[in-house]
Design brief:
It is a single chain. About 30% of the residues lie in helices and about 30% in strands. It is built from four helices and six strands; from the N terminus they run E-H-H-E-E-H-E-E-E-H. It is globular, with a radius of gyration of 15 Å.
């Protein structure tokens, strides 16, 4: 299982009349977008062209820091995006990733350590993409 993000951009920030340096946290989290796909064994299972990847990295980092990490499912709650757009759920066999957009499609189960390693790899990719746009990614907590 792999999170792949590419083609970073700022969706609405110019329309808002803001620069990344003056934008509040909630604007940075929403407006920094990239194409996000979930892949398994080289096959694309799900893809969204303009996904708020900074927001996903932010919430995944908070989830990994929380006492419930490894015990409770991940499903970010947002008024800006549909609840459950990206879900990480524990099953008897391991952790699986899915989306409400493809309700019957889940990745194969992986061990907790494998999931955490992939989340950290995704976090590094998001930070690199954000830095590549000239924005300091320090607003995203370390996972």
């Amino acid at each position: 299982m792999q999170f792949v993000c590419r083609n970073f951009g700022l969706s609405d920030m110019p329309r808002r009349g803001l620069t990344p340096q003056e934008a509040p946290l909630e604007v940075l989290l929403l407006d920094i977008e990239a194409e996000l796909s979930i892949r398994e064994q080289g096959r694309e299972m799900w893809c969204e062209e303009a996904f708020p990847v900074a927001k996903l990295a932010y919430h995944l980092a908070l989830w990994l820091q929380s006492p419930s990490a490894g015990h409770e499912d991940f499903e970010p709650d947002s008024m800006q995006a549909e609840e459950g757009l990206i879900r990480i759920a524990r099953s008897n066999e391991g952790w699986r990733v899915g989306s409400i957009l493809t309700p019957g499609l889940w990745t194969s189960p992986v061990a907790w350590e494998v999931l955490v390693a992939e989340i950290k790899r995704f976090d590094r990719a998001v930070r690199e993409g954000i830095a590549g746009m000239g924005i300091d990614p320090a607003f995203i907590p370390e996972p």
